UniProtKB/TrEMBL annotation:
One of its GO terms (cellular component) is cytoplasm. Residues 1-252 form the Aspartate/glutamate/uridylate kinase domain. The lineage of its organism: Archaea, Methanobacteriati, Methanobacteriota, Stenosarchaea group, Halobacteria. This is Putative [LysW]-aminoadipate/[LysW]-glutamate kinase. It catalyses: [amino-group carrier protein]-C-terminal-N-(1,4-dicarboxybutan-1-yl)-L-glutamine + ATP = [amino-group carrier protein]-C-terminal-N-(1-carboxy-5-phosphooxy-5-oxopentan-1-yl)-L-glutamine + ADP; [amino-group carrier protein]-C-terminal-gamma-(L-glutamyl)-L-glutamate + ATP = [amino-group carrier protein]-C-terminal-gamma-(5-phospho-L-glutamyl)-L-glutamate + ADP. Coiled coil: none annotated. Its main location: cytoplasm.
Amino acid sequence: MTVVVKIGGARAVDPEGALADVASLVEDGEDVVLTHGGSTAVDETLEELGQEPTYVETPGGVVGRFTDEDAMDVFKMVMPGKLNTDLVESLQNEGVDAVGLSGTDGKLLSGKRKSAVRVKEDGKKKIKRGDHSGKIESVNADLLETVLAGGYTPVVSVPMLGTEKSGGYTAVNADADRAAAAIAGALEADLVVLTDVSGIYEDPDDESTKIDSAATPAEFEGVKAAAEGFMTKKVMAAEEALEGGASSVIVATANAEGPITSALAGEGTTLEPGVLEAENEATQEAAK
């Protein structure tokens, strides 16, 4: 079994328990690929440098980072630099032979660069240019499988490798949840998304309304309806992971004892491939 673990970058997420759990899984012979976010650290570094982080809202209502050239420089410094190195260092201290990789290494994560994005400002749709972002279209699974086969544990960070219209390459930002989803799909792995809440709640303010699982399209519609704010992107990423071939997706808290093992045992909110069946059947029927 291969497990892809994504550790969130929110300040409230403590990675210590997850890293110890990675060590336990590796000791038991499991293949683990660790991925991580870091938006909070990027924002803090931008502010320390006197720059204001920029977030935009898409016409569909999803809020995301706008990464201009200066922000991209900070992103490259913080994500594959300090944060990735810190995690590799911590895993080495847990007895795990970890290898840090960015999405640009060996074309691990690649796709077209988006230099302009559609945004909604003051109720109007606009085009905002100068963005350094992209959507992951390809994962070099062979690279990850080679690293795993050698007895190493990959720790993967965005940026991804973006293809310019000229045919050249440039490092660009990509959503960390969707990066983890793409990797889990390519490896046909279980994806565990660790965050600062215990799962997806029917009422975002009430932990007792946690949704335990979704295995049918109707149940998944309930999950999507319940997701708000930062959880919206995680549900989008979960759907992409399952469409790509992931065995399951579990959204769970990082701040529990043995958070990965607990998530795989049923804690958190588990989403199974069956949530896509009706959608796929409808698509096939329409194509006839």
